[in-house]
## 1
Amino acid sequence: IFHSSAMINSLRKLLFNIYIGFCCSEVILPKLSICSQFSVSSSYQSSEDPGAFAVATNGEPFPWYHLRLPNSVIPLHYDLFVHPNLTSLDFVASEMIEILVRDTTQFIILHCKDLEIMNATLQSEEDLRDKKPGKKLHVLSYPAHEQIALLVPEKLMADLRYYVAIDFQGKLANGFEGFYKSTYRTLHGETRIIAVTDFQPTQARMAFPCFDEPLFKANFSIKIRRESRHIALSNMPKVKTIELQGGLLEDHFATTVKMSTYLVAYIVCDFNSVSGTTSSGVKVSIYASPDKWNQMHYALQASLKLLDFYEKYFDINYPLPKLDLVAIPDFGPGAMENWGLITYRETSLLFDPRTSSVSDKMWITKVIAHELAHQWFGNLVTMEWWNDIWLNEGFANYMELISVNATYPELQFDDYFFDVCYAVITRDSLNSSRPISKPAETPTQIQEMFDAVSYNKGACILNMLKDFLGEEKFQEGIIHYLKKFSYRNAKNDDLWGSLSNSCLEGDFTSGGICYSDSQVKSDTLAFLEENKIKEMMTTWTLQKGIPLVVVKQDGCSLSIQQERFLEGVFKEDPEWRALQERFLWHIPLTYSTSSSNTIHRHILKSKTDTLDLAEKTTWVKFNVDSNGYYLVHYEGHGWDQLITQLNQNHTLLRPKDRIGLIHDAFQLVSAGRMTLDKALNLTRYLQHETSSPILLKGLSYLELLYHMMDRRNISDVSENLKRYLLWYFKQMIDTQSWSDEGSAWDRMLRSVLLRLACELGHAPCIQKATELFSQWMESSGKLNIPTDVLKIVYSVGAQTTAGWNYLLEQYELSVSSAEKNKILYALSTSRHQEKLVKLIELGMEGKVIKTQDLAALIHAIARNPKGQQLVWNFVRANWTDLLKKFDLGSFAMRTIISSTTSFFSSKDELQEVKQFFESLSAQGSHLDIFQIVLETITKNIKWLEKNLPTLRTWLLVNI
Ligand SMILES: [Zn+2]
């Protein structure tokens, strides 16, 4: 699954699931079991009491009271038949599950949610051979655990195979989970319906009764019945189509490889496609609704390149004959890696040459790279349980870096990767963070695992390990891991094992090292021989938080010390010491000095250590190229020496080190370890900086300060900051062209600089944007505006009522989701409350503005100082209605909560938010994000108290 947890600016990056409670009828019709579920988390909490017993919906005892299924029965093969009716919006279906009994038992427990079971029978192998009819099974339903029990008349015997046949039916869901309905509008204004699945993590059970846990891998043979105006797609290619009486068609798909239930997928739609073939002969196709044909070509080119790359890199061929990538008009997450049938939001797959910007291209490339990586990490080798979801998501995020760098070097994806790490550090610096590996049992808890810690921190610690082991050794290790665990499941330890000993069978080994391994660095080799990878990496996966390395130079001696880095809790605070206890990391340190470019390495395993320098140097810089997941603080004159160097000749420090210095300095300010004026002084060298990613980083911190002041109405400071920004970056702003020219990062810098200039009211910027907007309106939306400035032009245009109304009209008409996103963002920047209210109403209604875009809309309005209070009031007043649209633990709900609250910075606001969360918890709705938000607000309050006077003075001196 793809989701970005960096809660930053853009609408593109938001994704989520929806939850609609299927009203659970207590009245069970005779012979029918309805496995449906009404309440979410609360019913899960108390259910693991060993003394407890479960009661089925009909009052009979339910034979199983655990959330996880028993191991007594395992599935081998599913024959699944589905017939959706896109007019009546329901489906009838049947399945035959071949099971293997491990331990003699009298019941079979399956997951099942919101489905109506019509009939269930059981055959033994003998029955099947002799064509004897199945024995009828008694079905009990336990909705609180989303389970059904099939009670068998006679015991099922160990080591024997049986066949369970179930007839069932259901409604196409209204949300984004299970087997659900999606709609799109044609150019001619006609609304069409399609049916699509999305199962991760626990929603396959909404489409067919199954063993819905990642460990229960099986083969699937799928048949889909459809009308002739539609097509059907599934994980595997179609082997035949049968024509039925009445004109219906039935597609039979080839049997899948062995895989987990959450990767099963099927779609009934009327989409068009473009196709190509990889060098190894895999047919790759991009599907989208018929009017979007011209937006599919970039995705095809990118997926062909990336699939070729991965096959070589992993040394394992993609095992299926085809791969389809489908743009779904209504989709919860950004994308989902179903094996052979990857589903995407339109914005994550479709590149419209007329309206997609360079950052849209970056995003699409990244998401395709992510989902293709999952075909190996996740699909071929799957985590045993959701507590280790980082093995899927951390790896997929990390592989984006490797594969996009190799296939699209012009995108300079390296520089994008910083934000992957920086986005999670803010969260990981709070006490409420969590370890990468963490128990998760209920569906809500499992959903909450899909967060920045699994995705971003996972990717960052893998990148750190790669830097430590060396690229080649690391690659060998993961190839070993993928080969060893193909079609199986793995745990953390399995990965560390494979990385410690990456010898493949046939290699001569000695002391855990492959004989053929000649290129490994000697220090790494010594480390590997001790087989310490697991020991090192568990300090990063089982321990929450991020370390701060404090360095003090004394002549040729460096004293280094590690502590847990905390933002919002200062070293002088009484609770600081207790929060440090028992935290210790094995940190693979790297450093370089002013006198040599050599990269020195040292593993810091204890709280303190000393290092000797070969010669006297003016400065030392730790965390070379910012590959390590730790922050560095230089005590004494350390920072001053580095700042002096930046001002004298910044090119003596590596570009990635310059980004790291800017980042660490501002984080240290938040931790109360550095004064704000020092961090600001560090940015004063930026007028000589020529690297766009670095300029963007520096600019982002200054902009953040501006927004903070603007929101709080501290107008003397915000006005001065505005003047400072426009003055300091004036030359850069004024030399920007309103075009799509230049390298990827120059284009991104242009978008940010011009957006900021217009937001800050820079007259030439507003004038140019207004001009382009009028021309665009006069051309009835036909004029091509350079894509990188499109959002800026729309945003300036949205400030007049006529412009705003015209944009809303165009929003409805546009068939480019890239354009729609830009328009929606522009509409959300209006200063008129009634317009913002109108947007929220449209978002709640879900027609003009799709429900899938509601969380992004709320996020965008919350970013607008004129809208922040509005959405906060709205969320509180409409909480129940929001919960009818989205699952409590979904990314959408978490986005809605955090985007409307985390910018608060006063004690009154903190109190207000606290009360709201307490009232939710009292109703049984609890999320980890509540604590994260409260800590964030507390941190903001402390930040202001400590740094506002400094900022005020610094601006007066520096303007
Ligand atoms: Zn993913």
## 2
Amino acid sequence: MNATIARAAEKIRQGERLTPSESLQMYVEAPLPLLGELADLVRARKHPERVVSYIIDRNVNYTNVCVARCSFCAFYRPVGSSEGYVLGFDEIFRKIDETIELGGGQLLLQGGHNPDLPLGWYEDLFRSVKERYPEFRLHALSPPEIIHLTRLSRLPIRDVIDRLVAAGLDSVPGGGAEILVDRVRKILNCYNKATADEWLEVMRQAHRAGLRTTATMMYGTVDTPEDRIEHMVRLRELQDEGGGFTAFIAWSYQPEHTELGGSEATGLEYLRTLATARLVLDNFPNVQASWVTQGGKVGQLSLGYGANDMGSVMIEENVVRAAGAMYCMDEVEIVRNIENAGFTPKRRNMHYEILGEPMFRQREVRRVLNLAVAREEGDTSVPAELANYPARSAAEKRRRNGDNFFSGS
Ligand code: SF4
């Protein structure tokens, strides 16, 4: 082992912070077993009770219509596409009913940048959810979606956040970060949807508004190890300002059906990235295992490489599945994976407060062996309430005029 790696390892053992260059050197050169050992040490320091948490929530994508057109995304459909959809409020209520039936208390609600859904649509949706389900939580709208709404509404970030909070927003998911380096974002065609600074500014404003948020990283497209470390360091700096991030979640790019193509990073690279993140992000209380992209076994291994949380029980998934990955674990499976790895499973909420023992051990819960989708194939219904909001795109104006010739792409 070279002297720099040995020194950096000693710093971790002493509870000291790695510099960016030490972080990079560890990421690129440290033997994987050493990274795992150190990440596990940090995990044990932060979570000595050997509890691994998870949440029962539902991942709902309210629309797949998107003007951003990121080159790594297999989920979106362009405006006017016959495969584009917007979920109706009633459909979302049904999904909430099913989530509650499975013991869940939250929706993770994210979607495309649909120009025909103004800020008022989101406010009405959130209000109507909170009226029907006052205790139910909305973990909704990643920073690029909030930037999209600032552009549509011509309001500053903080005003959009305040209006969403007044309507019922509880917390902000860390999606759309990809890699927070503008050189990479330009190549991936996601610079225009939100620059690195814009993504971070939304999170800064959300934290100042009292919201807790997560942070994510999607690696393995055109990014270098330097880019990944820069991403982690920028998150660490923002966390130093206010500490509003609850958790960090990394996953590898899923290339199938995307414009960008390429191949997927290996499970070993995932473990190396996860462990390094646990070392660099010394001010993040929690690190999630991404079994949705890595599968249950690597997800389980993650618990020895710094992760202390198994993320969400899967009820519905649309985005990762569109890009070729499809792993399904219901609560029984997640708990089995956690216990087989020697940890104690506990249910949590978005704030990572422990809610209790597994739900299925307290009452009968239906098994979920197949993931639901946003919409059944062939369902092209358009929600009636959309007529309450002005159409902005030419395609939507034409559709409302009964002229559908535009809907073939
Ligand atoms: S990743 Fe999100 S913003 Fe980008 S094209 Fe897909 S749906 Fe749109």
